[in-house]
Amino acid sequence: MFGIGFGELVVIVFLAVLVFGPDRLPELAKQAGQFVRKLRGFANNARDELRAELGPEYADLELRDLDPRTIVRKHIAEVLAEDDPVVEARSKGRPLATGELPPYDRDAT
Questions:
Q1: Comparing C-alpha atoms, which of 45, 47, 48, 13 is closest to residue 32?
Q2: Using CA atoms, how far apart are residues 42 and 30, in angstroms rounded to an integer?
Q3: How many domains does the chain have?
Q4: Which domain holds residue 84?
């Protein structure tokens, strides 16, 4: 959760109780929950509007898909999933016998 461990979370809760007091803390937690709900609603509305504007070909668009790291991973996975004709050609040969050396091309090295 945001890179915060259990120990840090305990310290934050303890400081919140000290600063705001045990009487106001439930009301502040309720307000924080309402804020998170509103923020999530805004994000969902923005995503839905973006999907509507882009059209039906982007109906499965997720906001995480716009992250450059995700885009690169997706394209790398697609390339790795494609059939590589060089690998297929090499794999059609016979297996090496025990102790047999693989072919070596001096001109290629």
A1: 13
A2: 19
A3: 1
A4: 8-91
Looking at the domain assignment, is residue 107 inside a domain? no
Confirm whether 106 is domain-assigned: no
Q: Which residue has the tokens 């070596």?
A: 104
Please write down the long-range contacts of 104-109, taking CB distance under 8 Å and 24 or more positions apart: none
32 lies in some domain: yes
Let me know: does 16 contact 25? Beta carbons within 8 Å.
Answer: yes
Q: Are 61 and 54 in contact (CB under 8 A)?
A: yes
Q: Kindly state whether residue 96 falls inside one of the protein's structural domains.
A: no
What does the alpha-carbon distance between residue 61 and residue 51 come to, in Å, rounded to a whole number? 7
Residue-by-residue pLDDT tens, the chain, 109 positions? 467 788 898 898 888 888 888 888 889 889 989 999 999 999 889 888 888 888 887 777 776 777 888 888 887 888 877 765 555 555 566 788 888 888 777 787 6
pTM of the model: 0.46
At 89, list the tokens: 């050609």
Nearest-angstrom CA–CA distance, 45 and 41: 6
